[in-house]
Amino acid sequence: MKRAAAVLSVTLVTALAAAGCGFGDDGPSIVVYNAQHEQLLEELAPAFTDKTGIEVELRNGSDPELAAQLIQEGEASPADVFLTENSPAMSSVEAAGLFAPLDDATVAGIPEQYRPTSGLWTGFAARSTVLVYNTDQVDESELPDSLLDLADPEWAGRISFSPTGADFQAIVAAVLALEGEDATRAWLEGLEANGTVYDGNNVVLESVNSGESEIGIIYHYYWYRDQAESGDVSDHSALYFFGDQDPGAFVSVSGAGVLASSDDADEAEQFVAYLTSEEGQQKLADSYALEYPLDPSVRLDPPVKPFAELQPPVVNVSDLDGATVVDLMTEVGFL
Ligand SMILES: [Fe+2]
After folding, report:
1. Ligand 1 mean position to 25 CA, how many Å?
2. What pLDDT score was predicted for residue 27?
3. How confident is the model at residue 11 (pLDDT cuts 50, 70, 90)?
4. Whose CA, among 86, 107, 271, 315, lies 20 to 30 Å from 284?
5. What is the number of helices (H) and of strands (E) in the chain?
6. pLDDT for 267-304, tens place per residue?
7. 85 C-alpha to center of ligand 1: Å?
8. What is the rounded distance in angstroms from the CA atom of residue 329 to the CA atom of residue 326?
9. Could you give the CA distance from residue 335 to residue 332 in angstroms, rounded to a whole number?
């Protein structure tokens, strides 16, 4: 494994100083611990406030950071809602007993496979695992049928990914759920031998586009967003979808839940209900994000590959085990 030069994380943790009374009026307000992309919530939260009059204070961080903070704060947490990029962080907060059950009406628009049977949180957006490949260096016909094949020696020195991120770790959690611990460890060992690691999926995309790496493991929206904006870091690359229920076709779910300790549980539930409503799902589809809405009646516009064509493997969102993933990745030397 090569380690690419450290790149400063661009995640700005906007720790708003407001301690519960930071808004200049007496209207209702909620605190959202937000591990989804900050820019997405900066589009969705104001739309919710316009509709309901409920102010939203976003405290941004990563999935593991904010999950750990919630578990540490427990009952004393100021958070009313937790939003993640990927579901393993939702499962760890659920396992700590910190979520209140959601109303049936709140989750009704989201297909059952994208929420836990416990009813303690729900998915509200989805992202597809993809390979990005440099089109000058690789022909699509050379790409493997399975994500698991990337551990083979033929890919030595040709592949990049971002193992410290919650996105990649969710993909590993899916491999673990589908293939078991021994196969996952062996796959990670192969990737460790073959790969160059970067800090962030955008950097992986850049490395593939520039030809520094031939292929990279990312989520679909990084490539589509760059295409929609400028093509600067994607014009020399293309996406490859594994499909066929391969672990590499894993669809990861972004989660939303209400904290049991919330003092504003009704407003918090309204916020989650907005995210899962047809209106909120359409707002997501119309946003810059290019992540998939989960309400089947709402669709992303082309050129994004239709959600219905992804052929993901069947993975129970409750079975994604982030803690074992961190143990395995530590053992193999990624973390
Ligand atoms: Fe992401």
Report:
1. 34
2. 86
3. very low
4. 315
5. 11, 11
6. 999 999 999 999 999 999 999 999 999 999 999 999 99
7. 7
8. 5
9. 8
C-alpha of residue 218 to centroid of ligand 1, in Å? 9
CA of 107 to the centre of ligand 1 (A): 23
C-alpha 37 – ligand 1 centre gap (Å): 7
> Ligand 1 centroid vs 17 CA: distance in angstroms?
26
User: Considering only CA atoms, which of 243, 254, 244 is closest in space to residue 317?
Assistant: 254
**Residue 265 φ then ψ, to 5°:** -60, -35
- Summarised one tens digit per residue, pLDDT across range 239-276 is 999 999 999 999 999 999 999 999 999 999 999 999 99
Ligand 1: distance of its center to the CA of 132 in Å?
15
CB half-sphere exposure, 93, CA atoms < 13 A: 38
- Distance in Å, CA 171 to ligand 1 centroid: 12
| CA 157 / ligand 1 centre spacing (Å) | 24
Q: Ligand 1 center to residue 68 CA distance, Å?
A: 19
How many A from CA of 220 to the centre of ligand 1? 9
- Segment 83-112 mean pLDDT: 97
Question: What is the distance of C-alpha 213 from the center of its chain?
Answer: 23
> pTM for the full model?
0.91
* Per-residue buried b or exposed e for 7-28, using 16+ beta carbons within 10 Å of the residue's own CB: eeeeeeeeeeeeeeeeeeeeee
Q: If pLDDT is split at 50, 70 and 90, which confidence band does 2 have?
A: confident
- If you measure from the C-alpha of residue 24 to the centroid of ligand 1, how many angstroms do you get, rounded to a whole number? 33
